[in-house]
Write a structure and sequence with these properties.
alpha+beta; Alpha-Beta Plaits; Glycinamide Ribonucleotide Synthetase, Chain A, domain 4; OB fold (Dihydrolipoamide Acetyltransferase, E2P); 4 domains; 11-stranded mixed β-sheet; 5-stranded mixed beta barrel
Length: 456
Protein backbone atom coordinates (compact mmCIF):
# COMPACT_ATOMS: atom_id res chain seq x y z
CA UNK A 1 0.00 0.00 0.00
CA UNK A 2 1.35 3.42 -0.90
CA UNK A 3 -0.07 6.95 -0.68
CA UNK A 4 -0.09 9.21 -3.70
CA UNK A 5 1.76 12.37 -2.75
CA UNK A 6 1.23 16.02 -3.53
CA UNK A 7 4.21 18.24 -2.79
CA UNK A 8 5.45 15.65 -0.29
CA UNK A 9 2.19 15.63 1.75
CA UNK A 10 0.02 12.55 2.04
CA UNK A 11 -3.35 12.91 0.34
CA UNK A 12 -6.26 13.40 2.76
CA UNK A 13 -9.70 11.82 2.80
CA UNK A 14 -11.15 14.43 0.44
CA UNK A 15 -8.97 13.17 -2.39
CA UNK A 16 -10.96 11.42 -5.10
CA UNK A 17 -9.77 9.24 -7.99
CA UNK A 18 -12.41 9.10 -10.74
CA UNK A 19 -12.06 6.41 -13.43
CA UNK A 20 -14.28 6.49 -16.52
CA UNK A 21 -14.52 4.07 -19.45
CA UNK A 22 -16.76 2.83 -22.26
CA UNK A 23 -18.63 6.09 -22.74
CA UNK A 24 -17.88 6.16 -26.47
CA UNK A 25 -20.16 4.51 -29.01
CA UNK A 26 -19.65 3.60 -32.65
CA UNK A 27 -22.42 6.16 -33.27
CA UNK A 28 -20.59 8.98 -31.50
CA UNK A 29 -19.44 10.21 -28.14
CA UNK A 30 -16.00 10.02 -26.60
CA UNK A 31 -14.79 9.28 -23.07
CA UNK A 32 -12.43 12.28 -23.14
CA UNK A 33 -15.28 14.54 -24.29
CA UNK A 34 -17.46 13.25 -21.46
CA UNK A 35 -14.72 14.35 -19.03
CA UNK A 36 -14.51 17.71 -20.82
CA UNK A 37 -18.25 18.18 -20.26
CA UNK A 38 -17.96 17.12 -16.61
CA UNK A 39 -15.13 19.57 -15.90
CA UNK A 40 -16.99 22.35 -17.70
CA UNK A 41 -19.94 21.83 -15.38
CA UNK A 42 -17.71 21.47 -12.32
CA UNK A 43 -15.92 24.74 -13.09
CA UNK A 44 -19.23 26.60 -12.82
CA UNK A 45 -20.65 24.85 -9.75
CA UNK A 46 -18.08 23.35 -7.40
CA UNK A 47 -14.78 24.17 -5.72
CA UNK A 48 -12.57 21.40 -7.11
CA UNK A 49 -8.77 21.25 -7.48
CA UNK A 50 -6.90 18.86 -9.76
CA UNK A 51 -4.01 16.85 -8.33
CA UNK A 52 -2.74 15.78 -11.75
CA UNK A 53 -3.53 16.41 -15.37
CA UNK A 54 -6.54 14.40 -16.54
CA UNK A 55 -5.16 11.01 -17.53
CA UNK A 56 -5.89 9.55 -20.97
CA UNK A 57 -5.14 5.85 -20.62
CA UNK A 58 -4.98 3.42 -23.51
CA UNK A 59 -5.27 -0.27 -22.66
CA UNK A 60 -4.51 -3.57 -24.42
CA UNK A 61 -5.31 -2.88 -28.10
CA UNK A 62 -5.52 -6.59 -28.85
CA UNK A 63 -8.85 -7.13 -27.01
CA UNK A 64 -11.57 -8.00 -29.59
CA UNK A 65 -14.41 -6.55 -27.48
CA UNK A 66 -12.64 -3.26 -26.72
CA UNK A 67 -14.33 0.10 -27.22
CA UNK A 68 -13.65 2.21 -30.32
CA UNK A 69 -10.49 3.84 -28.98
CA UNK A 70 -9.85 1.46 -26.08
CA UNK A 71 -9.11 4.50 -23.94
CA UNK A 72 -10.17 5.24 -20.37
CA UNK A 73 -9.80 8.47 -18.38
CA UNK A 74 -8.90 9.22 -14.77
CA UNK A 75 -9.26 12.40 -12.72
CA UNK A 76 -7.35 12.85 -9.48
CA UNK A 77 -9.17 15.56 -7.53
CA UNK A 78 -9.39 17.33 -4.22
CA UNK A 79 -13.04 17.91 -3.43
CA UNK A 80 -14.55 19.75 -0.46
CA UNK A 81 -16.15 17.26 1.88
CA UNK A 82 -19.47 19.10 1.84
CA UNK A 83 -19.51 19.01 -1.99
CA UNK A 84 -18.70 15.34 -2.50
CA UNK A 85 -22.34 14.26 -2.68
CA UNK A 86 -23.13 16.99 -5.21
CA UNK A 87 -20.15 15.94 -7.32
CA UNK A 88 -21.26 12.31 -7.32
CA UNK A 89 -24.77 13.34 -8.32
CA UNK A 90 -23.38 15.47 -11.16
CA UNK A 91 -21.40 12.49 -12.48
CA UNK A 92 -24.41 10.18 -12.31
CA UNK A 93 -26.74 12.59 -14.14
CA UNK A 94 -24.10 13.47 -16.74
CA UNK A 95 -23.36 9.79 -17.47
CA UNK A 96 -27.04 9.04 -17.95
CA UNK A 97 -27.70 12.03 -20.22
CA UNK A 98 -24.47 11.63 -22.24
CA UNK A 99 -25.01 7.95 -23.06
CA UNK A 100 -28.75 8.18 -23.67
CA UNK A 101 -29.31 6.58 -27.06
CA UNK A 102 -25.96 4.73 -27.06
CA UNK A 103 -26.76 1.02 -26.88
CA UNK A 104 -23.37 -0.39 -27.90
CA UNK A 105 -21.39 0.76 -24.87
CA UNK A 106 -21.28 -0.20 -21.20
CA UNK A 107 -20.24 3.00 -19.41
CA UNK A 108 -18.88 3.10 -15.89
CA UNK A 109 -17.70 5.80 -13.51
CA UNK A 110 -15.64 4.42 -10.60
CA UNK A 111 -14.84 6.54 -7.54
CA UNK A 112 -12.04 5.77 -5.10
CA UNK A 113 -11.56 7.99 -2.07
CA UNK A 114 -8.22 8.61 -0.36
CA UNK A 115 -5.22 6.35 -0.62
CA UNK A 116 -4.27 4.67 -3.88
CA UNK A 117 -3.37 1.05 -3.16
CA UNK A 118 -0.75 -0.77 -5.22
CA UNK A 119 -3.46 -3.29 -6.21
CA UNK A 120 -4.72 -0.71 -8.70
CA UNK A 121 -1.31 -0.35 -10.35
CA UNK A 122 -1.06 -4.13 -10.69
CA UNK A 123 -4.54 -4.22 -12.20
CA UNK A 124 -3.56 -1.48 -14.68
CA UNK A 125 -0.41 -3.33 -15.73
CA UNK A 126 -2.41 -6.48 -16.44
CA UNK A 127 -5.05 -4.54 -18.41
CA UNK A 128 -2.28 -3.08 -20.59
CA UNK A 129 -1.10 -6.46 -21.86
CA UNK A 130 -3.53 -9.25 -21.08
CA UNK A 131 -7.19 -10.21 -20.85
CA UNK A 132 -8.89 -9.11 -17.63
CA UNK A 133 -12.16 -10.69 -16.52
CA UNK A 134 -15.00 -8.49 -15.29
CA UNK A 135 -15.04 -10.66 -12.16
CA UNK A 136 -11.52 -9.45 -11.30
CA UNK A 137 -12.67 -5.84 -11.57
CA UNK A 138 -15.64 -6.46 -9.27
CA UNK A 139 -13.37 -8.12 -6.71
CA UNK A 140 -10.95 -5.17 -6.75
CA UNK A 141 -13.79 -2.65 -6.42
CA UNK A 142 -15.32 -4.51 -3.47
CA UNK A 143 -11.99 -4.96 -1.71
CA UNK A 144 -11.23 -1.23 -1.74
CA UNK A 145 -14.78 0.18 -1.36
CA UNK A 146 -14.91 1.71 -4.80
CA UNK A 147 -18.24 3.36 -5.58
CA UNK A 148 -19.45 2.30 -9.02
CA UNK A 149 -21.90 4.19 -11.23
CA UNK A 150 -22.74 2.08 -14.25
CA UNK A 151 -25.10 1.68 -17.17
CA UNK A 152 -26.10 -1.68 -18.65
CA UNK A 153 -23.57 -4.53 -18.09
CA UNK A 154 -20.89 -2.31 -16.58
CA UNK A 155 -18.07 -3.84 -18.67
CA UNK A 156 -16.38 -0.44 -18.52
CA UNK A 157 -15.45 -1.13 -14.91
CA UNK A 158 -12.27 -2.85 -16.13
CA UNK A 159 -11.00 0.24 -17.91
CA UNK A 160 -12.21 2.62 -15.20
CA UNK A 161 -10.27 0.80 -12.46
CA UNK A 162 -7.22 0.39 -14.70
CA UNK A 163 -7.24 4.14 -15.31
CA UNK A 164 -7.31 4.79 -11.56
CA UNK A 165 -4.14 2.70 -11.18
CA UNK A 166 -2.34 4.20 -14.16
CA UNK A 167 0.63 6.50 -14.71
CA UNK A 168 1.98 6.64 -11.17
CA UNK A 169 5.46 5.93 -12.53
CA UNK A 170 7.39 5.45 -15.76
CA UNK A 171 7.17 7.05 -19.18
CA UNK A 172 4.33 9.32 -20.27
CA UNK A 173 3.39 11.89 -22.90
CA UNK A 174 0.76 14.63 -23.18
CA UNK A 175 -2.08 15.30 -25.58
CA UNK A 176 -4.27 18.36 -26.03
CA UNK A 177 -7.67 17.69 -27.57
CA UNK A 178 -9.88 20.27 -29.23
CA UNK A 179 -13.63 19.62 -29.39
CA UNK A 180 -16.21 20.68 -31.99
CA UNK A 181 -19.89 21.38 -32.08
CA UNK A 182 -22.01 18.39 -33.09
CA UNK A 183 -21.98 18.01 -36.88
CA UNK A 184 -19.28 20.62 -37.50
CA UNK A 185 -16.79 19.73 -40.23
CA UNK A 186 -13.12 19.26 -39.33
CA UNK A 187 -11.33 21.94 -41.35
CA UNK A 188 -7.58 22.36 -40.80
CA UNK A 189 -4.96 23.88 -43.10
CA UNK A 190 -2.73 20.93 -44.09
CA UNK A 191 0.25 23.22 -44.70
CA UNK A 192 0.11 24.44 -41.10
CA UNK A 193 0.35 20.82 -39.93
CA UNK A 194 3.60 20.47 -41.89
CA UNK A 195 4.87 23.67 -40.26
CA UNK A 196 3.91 22.26 -36.85
CA UNK A 197 5.80 19.06 -37.68
CA UNK A 198 9.01 20.91 -38.53
CA UNK A 199 8.80 23.56 -35.80
CA UNK A 200 8.16 21.12 -32.93
CA UNK A 201 10.14 18.03 -34.06
CA UNK A 202 10.96 15.74 -32.22
CA UNK A 203 8.81 16.91 -29.28
CA UNK A 204 5.45 16.21 -30.96
CA UNK A 205 4.59 13.04 -32.85
CA UNK A 206 2.09 11.39 -35.19
CA UNK A 207 0.99 14.71 -36.66
CA UNK A 208 1.19 13.64 -40.29
CA UNK A 209 2.14 10.57 -42.29
CA UNK A 210 5.28 11.45 -44.29
CA UNK A 211 4.75 8.75 -46.94
CA UNK A 212 1.20 9.70 -47.91
CA UNK A 213 0.93 13.27 -46.59
CA UNK A 214 -2.21 12.28 -44.69
CA UNK A 215 -2.96 14.53 -41.69
CA UNK A 216 -3.28 12.41 -38.55
CA UNK A 217 -4.35 15.11 -36.09
CA UNK A 218 -8.00 14.81 -37.05
CA UNK A 219 -9.99 11.62 -36.38
CA UNK A 220 -12.32 10.28 -39.04
CA UNK A 221 -15.17 9.01 -36.90
CA UNK A 222 -18.40 10.61 -35.63
CA UNK A 223 -16.91 11.58 -32.26
CA UNK A 224 -16.80 15.21 -31.04
CA UNK A 225 -12.98 15.51 -31.23
CA UNK A 226 -11.91 18.20 -33.70
CA UNK A 227 -8.20 17.40 -33.50
CA UNK A 228 -5.51 16.32 -31.06
CA UNK A 229 -1.79 17.05 -30.79
CA UNK A 230 0.52 14.65 -28.92
CA UNK A 231 3.87 15.62 -27.48
CA UNK A 232 6.37 15.53 -24.65
CA UNK A 233 5.10 18.38 -22.47
CA UNK A 234 2.31 20.97 -22.21
CA UNK A 235 4.55 23.82 -23.38
CA UNK A 236 5.24 22.29 -26.79
CA UNK A 237 1.53 21.52 -27.22
CA UNK A 238 0.57 25.13 -26.54
CA UNK A 239 3.16 26.16 -29.14
CA UNK A 240 1.52 23.73 -31.57
CA UNK A 241 -1.89 25.36 -31.04
CA UNK A 242 -0.42 28.73 -32.02
CA UNK A 243 1.02 27.26 -35.24
CA UNK A 244 -2.09 25.42 -36.44
CA UNK A 245 -4.56 27.20 -38.70
CA UNK A 246 -7.99 25.79 -37.94
CA UNK A 247 -11.11 26.92 -39.83
CA UNK A 248 -13.59 25.14 -37.54
CA UNK A 249 -14.12 27.00 -34.27
CA UNK A 250 -13.48 24.68 -31.28
CA UNK A 251 -15.83 24.80 -28.30
CA UNK A 252 -12.85 24.18 -26.02
CA UNK A 253 -9.71 22.21 -25.23
CA UNK A 254 -8.60 19.74 -22.59
CA UNK A 255 -4.97 18.87 -21.79
CA UNK A 256 -4.16 15.28 -20.79
CA UNK A 257 -1.22 13.29 -19.49
CA UNK A 258 -1.14 9.91 -21.21
CA UNK A 259 0.58 6.58 -21.76
CA UNK A 260 0.29 7.00 -25.55
CA UNK A 261 3.49 6.56 -27.53
CA UNK A 262 5.33 4.69 -24.74
CA UNK A 263 5.30 0.98 -25.75
CA UNK A 264 4.15 0.24 -22.18
CA UNK A 265 1.73 -2.46 -23.35
CA UNK A 266 4.34 -4.99 -24.46
CA UNK A 267 4.72 -7.70 -21.82
CA UNK A 268 8.10 -9.39 -22.13
CA UNK A 269 7.94 -13.18 -22.33
CA UNK A 270 10.88 -15.57 -22.50
CA UNK A 271 9.14 -18.65 -23.88
CA UNK A 272 6.58 -19.25 -26.61
CA UNK A 273 4.57 -21.35 -24.16
CA UNK A 274 3.96 -18.18 -22.09
CA UNK A 275 2.13 -16.42 -24.93
CA UNK A 276 -1.59 -16.02 -24.21
CA UNK A 277 -4.37 -15.32 -26.72
CA UNK A 278 -5.12 -11.57 -27.10
CA UNK A 279 -2.02 -10.57 -25.14
CA UNK A 280 0.39 -7.84 -26.25
CA UNK A 281 3.93 -9.17 -25.92
CA UNK A 282 7.58 -8.88 -26.88
CA UNK A 283 9.71 -11.99 -27.35
CA UNK A 284 13.27 -12.64 -28.52
CA UNK A 285 14.41 -15.61 -30.54
CA UNK A 286 15.84 -16.91 -33.78
CA UNK A 287 14.12 -16.86 -37.16
CA UNK A 288 13.07 -20.49 -37.70
CA UNK A 289 11.62 -20.42 -41.23
CA UNK A 290 12.23 -18.58 -44.47
CA UNK A 291 9.77 -15.65 -44.69
CA UNK A 292 6.94 -16.25 -47.13
CA UNK A 293 4.89 -13.60 -48.92
CA UNK A 294 1.19 -14.49 -49.07
CA UNK A 295 -1.82 -12.99 -50.80
CA UNK A 296 -2.20 -9.31 -49.95
CA UNK A 297 1.55 -8.77 -49.62
CA UNK A 298 1.69 -9.98 -46.00
CA UNK A 299 4.83 -11.77 -44.78
CA UNK A 300 4.68 -14.92 -42.63
CA UNK A 301 7.61 -16.47 -40.76
CA UNK A 302 8.36 -18.38 -37.56
CA UNK A 303 10.44 -17.45 -34.52
CA UNK A 304 11.92 -20.03 -32.14
CA UNK A 305 12.85 -19.73 -28.47
CA UNK A 306 15.00 -22.85 -28.79
CA UNK A 307 12.18 -25.19 -27.83
CA UNK A 308 8.95 -24.06 -29.48
CA UNK A 309 8.05 -21.96 -32.51
CA UNK A 310 5.60 -19.08 -32.96
CA UNK A 311 4.07 -17.89 -36.22
CA UNK A 312 4.65 -14.20 -36.91
CA UNK A 313 2.77 -12.08 -39.44
CA UNK A 314 3.98 -8.73 -40.74
CA UNK A 315 1.00 -7.28 -42.55
CA UNK A 316 1.26 -5.04 -45.59
CA UNK A 317 0.13 -1.81 -43.82
CA UNK A 318 3.11 -2.13 -41.44
CA UNK A 319 5.32 -0.73 -44.21
CA UNK A 320 9.03 -1.05 -43.46
CA UNK A 321 8.32 -3.71 -40.83
CA UNK A 322 6.91 -5.93 -43.60
CA UNK A 323 9.74 -5.10 -46.02
CA UNK A 324 12.45 -5.95 -43.48
CA UNK A 325 10.62 -9.11 -42.38
CA UNK A 326 10.80 -10.31 -45.98
CA UNK A 327 14.62 -9.98 -45.87
CA UNK A 328 15.05 -12.11 -42.73
CA UNK A 329 17.05 -15.32 -42.94
CA UNK A 330 16.86 -18.46 -40.84
CA UNK A 331 19.16 -17.99 -37.83
CA UNK A 332 18.77 -14.20 -37.55
CA UNK A 333 18.32 -13.11 -33.93
CA UNK A 334 15.32 -10.80 -33.55
CA UNK A 335 12.82 -9.33 -31.12
CA UNK A 336 9.19 -9.09 -32.20
CA UNK A 337 6.47 -7.07 -30.48
CA UNK A 338 2.76 -7.25 -31.16
CA UNK A 339 -0.58 -8.87 -30.44
CA UNK A 340 -1.14 -12.63 -30.15
CA UNK A 341 -4.16 -14.14 -31.89
CA UNK A 342 -5.26 -17.38 -33.47
CA UNK A 343 -3.72 -17.73 -36.93
CA UNK A 344 -6.50 -17.56 -39.55
CA UNK A 345 -7.41 -21.09 -40.61
CA UNK A 346 -5.12 -22.78 -38.06
CA UNK A 347 -5.59 -23.62 -34.40
CA UNK A 348 -2.26 -22.07 -33.44
CA UNK A 349 -1.31 -18.71 -32.02
CA UNK A 350 0.37 -16.14 -34.21
CA UNK A 351 1.85 -12.73 -33.49
CA UNK A 352 0.75 -9.66 -35.44
CA UNK A 353 4.14 -7.91 -35.62
CA UNK A 354 3.90 -4.22 -34.68
CA UNK A 355 7.59 -3.64 -34.00
CA UNK A 356 10.60 -5.58 -35.30
CA UNK A 357 14.11 -5.39 -33.87
CA UNK A 358 16.85 -7.22 -35.79
CA UNK A 359 19.44 -7.85 -33.09
CA UNK A 360 21.95 -9.83 -35.14
CA UNK A 361 21.70 -10.72 -38.82
CA UNK A 362 23.40 -13.99 -39.79
CA UNK A 363 26.17 -13.71 -42.36
CA UNK A 364 25.15 -14.60 -45.89
CA UNK A 365 27.13 -17.39 -47.56
CA UNK A 366 27.24 -17.11 -51.37
CA UNK A 367 28.93 -19.12 -54.10
CA UNK A 368 30.95 -17.41 -56.83
CA UNK A 369 32.88 -18.71 -59.84
CA UNK A 370 36.65 -18.44 -59.46
CA UNK A 371 38.65 -15.68 -61.18
CA UNK A 372 40.94 -16.28 -64.16
CA UNK A 373 44.57 -16.52 -62.97
CA UNK A 374 45.74 -14.86 -66.21
CA UNK A 375 43.47 -11.84 -66.74
CA UNK A 376 41.38 -11.69 -63.55
CA UNK A 377 37.99 -11.99 -65.29
CA UNK A 378 35.38 -14.24 -63.68
CA UNK A 379 35.47 -17.76 -65.21
CA UNK A 380 32.36 -19.28 -66.77
CA UNK A 381 31.17 -22.79 -65.92
CA UNK A 382 31.29 -25.29 -68.78
CA UNK A 383 28.63 -27.49 -67.21
CA UNK A 384 28.78 -30.41 -64.82
CA UNK A 385 32.28 -31.91 -64.77
CA UNK A 386 33.27 -29.61 -67.62
CA UNK A 387 35.41 -27.27 -65.56
CA UNK A 388 35.67 -23.51 -66.15
CA UNK A 389 36.72 -21.31 -69.08
CA UNK A 390 37.68 -17.63 -69.40
CA UNK A 391 35.84 -15.98 -72.27
CA UNK A 392 38.39 -13.19 -72.45
CA UNK A 393 41.70 -15.05 -72.73
CA UNK A 394 40.61 -18.64 -73.30
CA UNK A 395 42.11 -20.08 -70.11
CA UNK A 396 40.58 -23.42 -69.10
CA UNK A 397 40.64 -25.42 -65.89
CA UNK A 398 38.98 -28.65 -64.82
CA UNK A 399 40.34 -28.42 -61.28
CA UNK A 400 38.88 -25.02 -60.35
CA UNK A 401 35.85 -24.97 -58.01
CA UNK A 402 33.33 -22.45 -56.77
CA UNK A 403 34.32 -20.09 -53.98
CA UNK A 404 32.28 -19.77 -50.78
CA UNK A 405 32.13 -16.14 -49.63
CA UNK A 406 30.70 -14.73 -46.39
CA UNK A 407 28.93 -11.39 -46.64
CA UNK A 408 27.77 -9.26 -43.72
CA UNK A 409 24.07 -8.39 -43.54
CA UNK A 410 24.52 -5.87 -40.73
CA UNK A 411 22.64 -3.27 -42.76
CA UNK A 412 19.43 -5.15 -41.85
CA UNK A 413 20.03 -4.75 -38.12
CA UNK A 414 18.02 -2.05 -36.31
CA UNK A 415 14.63 -1.08 -34.89
CA UNK A 416 11.66 -0.92 -37.27
CA UNK A 417 8.22 0.50 -36.56
CA UNK A 418 5.16 0.98 -38.82
CA UNK A 419 4.47 4.33 -40.51
CA UNK A 420 2.49 6.76 -38.33
CA UNK A 421 -0.77 6.05 -40.19
CA UNK A 422 -0.60 2.39 -39.07
CA UNK A 423 0.68 2.82 -35.50
CA UNK A 424 -1.28 1.88 -32.41
CA UNK A 425 -2.00 4.63 -29.86
CA UNK A 426 0.44 3.02 -27.43
CA UNK A 427 3.24 2.34 -29.93
CA UNK A 428 6.37 4.43 -29.44
CA UNK A 429 7.54 6.37 -32.52
CA UNK A 430 11.26 6.31 -33.29
CA UNK A 431 11.57 10.04 -32.56
CA UNK A 432 10.68 9.40 -28.91
CA UNK A 433 13.64 7.06 -28.35
CA UNK A 434 15.88 8.84 -25.85
CA UNK A 435 13.07 11.13 -24.61
CA UNK A 436 11.51 8.63 -22.19
CA UNK A 437 10.66 9.74 -18.66
CA UNK A 438 11.49 7.59 -15.62
CA UNK A 439 10.65 7.26 -11.94
CA UNK A 440 7.54 7.99 -9.90
CA UNK A 441 5.33 10.86 -10.95
CA UNK A 442 4.86 13.51 -8.26
CA UNK A 443 1.40 15.02 -8.42
CA UNK A 444 0.79 18.72 -7.89
CA UNK A 445 -2.31 20.70 -7.11
CA UNK A 446 -3.56 22.79 -10.02
CA UNK A 447 -6.52 24.91 -11.04
CA UNK A 448 -8.94 23.68 -13.69
CA UNK A 449 -8.01 26.56 -16.00
CA UNK A 450 -4.54 25.04 -16.38
CA UNK A 451 -5.98 22.10 -18.34
CA UNK A 452 -9.42 23.29 -19.43
CA UNK A 453 -9.71 26.02 -22.06
CA UNK A 454 -13.21 27.17 -23.03
CA UNK A 455 -14.05 29.24 -26.09
CA UNK A 456 -16.60 31.84 -25.07
Amino acid sequence: MFPLEVGGCELSHDVLHVGVDSVDSWRGGCTTHFIFEVLRDVADRLDVKLLDYPLLVRLNPNIPWRTRGNGAVCLRLKVRSNEVEAFERLLELKLKSYTDGFYDCDPVVALLYGELHSDFSSFYEKALSRVVALREAHELAQKHDVKVIRMRSGLGLIGALAAIGSLTRGDYTHEILAYREEGAARLIDDNSVWVLEFETWPYTFNNIDPETGRVLLTPRGPDPVLYGVRGEDPQVLMKALRILRVYTRPIGYLLFRSNQGTDCHYMRVERVEEVEPYSSISIKGGVASKPKVIKGGHVIFKISDGREELYCAAYEPSGIVRRVAEKLEVGDQIEVCGGARRFPGLEVLSLNVERLVVLRAREEVVEENPSCPRCGKRLKSMGRSGGYKCKRCGFKSIDACKLLLRRSRSEVEGVYTPPPRSMRHLAKPLRRYGLEKEGFYECEEMELRRVLILER
